[in-house]
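A.,

Following up on our hallway conversation. Structure tokens first:
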């Protein structure tokens, strides 16, 4: 592939239109943009353009891809801000800069990543919110772009990853609740195809089966990872004919909404229903105090950065870790939200 002129001739459209399509300009017809991106991929244009920049290692920029929107981040994304701080702590040692790649919740993550890579401005990429089957992984591996994922996926390309220990959280939560006499337990999961939802729910089912119990389908609540998502879970839970006596929240943002929805209906966490969740700074203001799993997001960010640098030729000698695949532990900190025991 010689360049944009070759691509324009192949498609029989102008060089200007091809350029605007590749750079995501809004004045390009969606069908035309799709044709251009597909042809660029087929003919190797993207691979050549990005590969040169990434192999030269001259940009000094690392991209961290995340999705945005109030339905995803709620009123603020403390999780990623803390992770970014840890990532940049490591990158600053090497005069590298972290740039957040903000994919709108309305856009397909794979299409967004393809567009960003086509610009060839980053030496490596960290991707988050991994899906059960995630084409971004194959895309980056095919183009030999250094990358690491925050989260696992069934899509396998030999990539490095770090993921929160959702299996450990599931087992510890179910064991704790069963020991307090709970038999009908609810759990939450993301509403989309994020892999963590499958991992968490599957392990909850296994943990309950060990106690001779089952996780009812109607007790698995999907929601956006936001305060509004937690509020909706409370409404849906209260509408069940047979209400669960306990619930485990997989996302750190939904506890506030859940508390409000329950309390508006006169149902008190820690008295009428046991709640276990994930810690966030905002959860410190909940009453009763939330029994939660916590971790150092800064340390997680540092580990992500080091795992990525270990895949980049210029830094392998400094970070001779090889492929990193690590479950990041979370610590259970007891509060009052699940303090009661059923008879």
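Then the amino acids I'd put at each of the 343 positions:
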């Amino acid at each position: 592939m010689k360049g944009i002129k070759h691509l324009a001739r192949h498609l029989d459209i102008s060089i200007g239109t091809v350029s605007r399509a590749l750079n995501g300009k809004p004045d390009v017809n969606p069908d035309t943009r799709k044709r251009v991106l597909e042809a660029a991929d087929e003919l190797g244009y993207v691979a050549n353009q990005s590969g040169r920049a990434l192999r030269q290692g001259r940009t000094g920029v690392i991209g961290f891809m995340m999705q945005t929107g109030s339905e995803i981040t709620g009123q603020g994304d403390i999780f990623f801000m803390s992770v970014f701080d840890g990532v940049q702590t490591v990158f600053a040692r090497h005069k590298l800069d972290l740039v957040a790649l903000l994919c709108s919740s309305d856009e397909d993550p794979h299409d967004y990543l393809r567009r960003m890579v086509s610009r060839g401005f980053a030496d490596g990429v960290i991707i988050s919110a991994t899906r059960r089957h995630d084409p971004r992984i194959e895309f980056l591996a095919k183009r030999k772009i250094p990358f690491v994922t925050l989260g696992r996926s069934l899509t396998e390309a030999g990539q490095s990853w770090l993921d929160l220990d959702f299996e450990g959280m599931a087992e510890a939560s179910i064991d704790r609740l069963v020991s307090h006499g709970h038999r009908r337990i609810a759990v939450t999961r993301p509403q989309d195809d994020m892999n963590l939802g499958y991992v968490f729910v599957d392990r909850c089912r296994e943990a309950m089966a060990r106690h001779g119990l089952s996780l009812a389908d109607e007790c698995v609540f999907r929601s956006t990872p936001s305060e509004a998502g937690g509020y909706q879970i409370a409404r849906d839970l209260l509408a069940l004919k047979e209400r669960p006596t306990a619930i485990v929240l997989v996302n750190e943002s939904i506890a506030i909404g859940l508390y409000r929805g329950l309390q508006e209906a006169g149902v008190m966490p820690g008295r009428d229903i046991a709640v276990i969740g994930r810690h966030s700074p905002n959860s410190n203001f909940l009453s009763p105090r939330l029994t939660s799993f916590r971790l150092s997001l800064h340390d997680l960010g540092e580990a992500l950065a080091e795992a990525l640098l270990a895949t980049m030729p210029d830094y392998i000698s400094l970070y001779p870790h090889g492929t990193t695949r690590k479950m990041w532990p979370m610590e259970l900190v007891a509060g009052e939200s699940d303090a009661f025991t059923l008879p």
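Residues 166-294 form a domain with the Rossmann fold fold (CATH 3.40.50.2300). Curious whether your intuition agrees with the design.

B.
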